[in-house]
Amino acid sequence: MKILVVNCGSSSLKYQLVDMNGEQVLAKGLVERIGLDGSLLVHEKGDEDKVKLPNEIPNHKIAIGLVIDTLVDPNLGVLSDIKEIEAVGHRVVHAGEEFAGSVLITDAVMNALNKCIELAPLHNPPNIMGIEACAEVLPGVKQVGVFDTAFHQTMPKKSFLYGLPYEAYENHSVRRYGFHGTSHKYVAQEAAKMLGKDIADLKIITCHLGNGASVAAIDGGISVDTSMGFTPLEGLVMGTRCGDIDPAIIPFIMNKEGLDINGVNDYLNKKSGVLGISGVSSDFRDIENAAGQGNERAQLALDIFAQRVKKYIGAYAAVLGGVDAVVFTAGLGENSPETRETVLADFEFLGIEIDTAKNKVRGKATNFSKDGSKVQALVIPTNEELMIARDTQSIVK
């Protein structure tokens, strides 16, 4: 089965064509600047070099059409006929409490996703546009929605409710939803394979560490707690997001800085995190370079980030009643041995002992625990697109 995986942003569209016979990526690419000047498609066929194709791309329907045309192009493509695409899997950010797993797209599902727009006003509209565009360009092809929030719908109320009047949950759906669910699910499953154990028997803490970052507690393959909340702002200090703060800071800063609601939202989401602390960048690579050159604020930003991850690992070990493996994934988690070593320092009391030589890897699946370590420390590159393709295949079949 050949599955097209689509991830739509407001002005972009990422795609992969996956042959599920061997889970091989036949082609992938990115449509940039949809609806803007300078729009183009960047296409990669197998292991060949990327090809840039400038084009006028006013909307997502045209973008999907351009992707399909490229996939069947005699020179650039990998398909002889559009009918070879048997299903489309879509990344959708927010499904509220509607879905605890991936689902076949129907009119009822689309109605539910539209109701969730108020919970994810920046993300759900383009996700929905991508589904509608595929329905027009690929009529009759089954589509599946794979939701960032769905994996965390197994959390109990004691994990997802806030200390607010219960009516905030009943009337306005205010609760912890959690995000990065597709990534957390994928690396937890891969961790079980790496360890040669049934995931049902494992307690795993997964650390998705990138510009956006979150930690999840996974018991027997089931998410029981996660650091992101009602929105992706809660939890870890991130690239530009503040993470956990005292809520009373918000009106205080609004008063001191003369900010309105939009202004303080921008302050917390786009000007905070390691960018705000370091004054250097939101990119951890830039911050690590600056710290290496003696920039004290850059080093402070790295220390604060690592401290926050450490706190969540400790907390989730308590929530799980023990832990069998800690998994690092995403851009920083996969590629920064220094971050992994700092985060796991002094965890010997919990049974985590790392081998610093084994830890010197980037972007490669590795067990960097010392021989005999009670808890395994793993690096597992995430692959959300493959997880979406797997879910899509399972549902369509």
From TrEMBL:
Domain of life: Bacteria
Residues that bind ATP: K14, H208, L209, G210, N211, G212, D283, F284, R285, G331, L332, G333, E334, N335
Binding site for substrate: R91
Chief location of this protein within or outside the cell: cytoplasm
Cofactor note: Mg(2+). Can also accept Mn(2+).
Annotated keywords: ATP-binding, Cytoplasm, Kinase, Magnesium, Metal-binding, Nucleotide-binding, Transferase
One matching Pfam family: Acetate_kinase
EC number, as in UniProt: 2.7.2.1
Binding positions for Mg(2+) per the UniProt entry: N7, E384
GO biological process: acetate metabolic process; acetyl-CoA biosynthetic process
Active site (catalytic residues): D148
Subcellular location: Cytoplasm
Molecular function, one GO term: magnesium ion binding
Subunit structure: Homodimer.
Function: Catalyzes the formation of acetyl phosphate from acetate and ATP. Can also catalyze the reverse reaction.
Name by which UniProt lists this protein: Acetate kinase
